[in-house]
Design goal:
Layout (H helix, E strand, L loop, with lengths): L7 E7 L4 H4 L13 H14 L4 E6 L3 H11 L6 E3 L16 H7 L3 H7 L11 H18 L7 E6 L1 H11 L18 E6 L9 E8 L9
Parallel strand pairs: 1-4, 2-3, 2-4
Antiparallel strand pairs: 1-5, 5-6
Helix pairs in contact: 2-3, 6-7
InterPro entries: His_Pase_superF_clade-1, His_PPase_superfam, PG/BPGM_mutase_AS, PGM_Phosphatase
GO cellular component, one term: cytoplasm
Protein name: Histidine phosphatase family protein
Amino acid sequence: MKRDAGVRKLILLRHGQTEWNANDRMQGQIDTDLTELGRRQAKEAARELVSHNAIAIISSDLKRAYDTAVALADHTTLDVVRDPRLRETHLGDWEGLTHLEVDAGYPGARLEWRMNADYTPPNGESKLEVGARSLPVVQELFAERQDWPGGTIILVAHGGLIAALTAALLDLPPQSWPALGGLANTSWVQLSSHGPSIDRPGWRLDVWNAAAKVAPDVL
C-alpha cells in the first residue's frame, strides 16, 4: 500500500493576473477578467499541477478564478464545478479603489485589516467571516467524496480567501491569521489531511505560495 493512500490532498490555487492586480486596485467580489499574462500564467500552472492527478476541480464563480480553473481542467477529463462560497473577500466600500486611495480615505485601516482577522472593511466582511463561509466547502467534500483518500482536490479561488480558508482548516487562533501572507498570481497552497474523521481531520500545511515569486501586489 502507498504510504499516503489514506491522505486527502487539497490544493488551493490563486487565479491569474488581472488588470486590477497590475494596478493595485482592490477587486473583492467585482468580476474582473484575466489579462493575457494571467491566461499564460494559468496555462503554466496547469502544466505544473496536472501531475497531481486531481479527482475534482472546484472554482469560485468569479471569472478570473473560473477561467484559471478551466485552463487546468483542459489538461484533465474533469469539469469545473463553480461554488460562490469560494469568492474573494467582500471589501465593501473599498472595492474599486486603489491601495493609495484606500490609504488616503481610511488612514491606517488597510494595515489594521492585514493585522486583525476580525477587522471588517466598511460594508464588507472580515477574514474570519471569509473563513467561516468557505470552510463548509471542504467539510462537505470530506463527507461526500469517498474517493478522496489517496487523491487530490483542487480549489481555484482568490488570495484573501485562500489565506482565510487555510487558517480556518488549520484552526489557527485569530491572532495568528496574519502569519499567512499574500499569494502571487497562480501560486498555490497544499494541505493534507491525516486525521481519522471529519471531526478530527488533522490538516497539515505542506506548501505555501508554491511555484511563484512573491509579486508586488502581495507585499
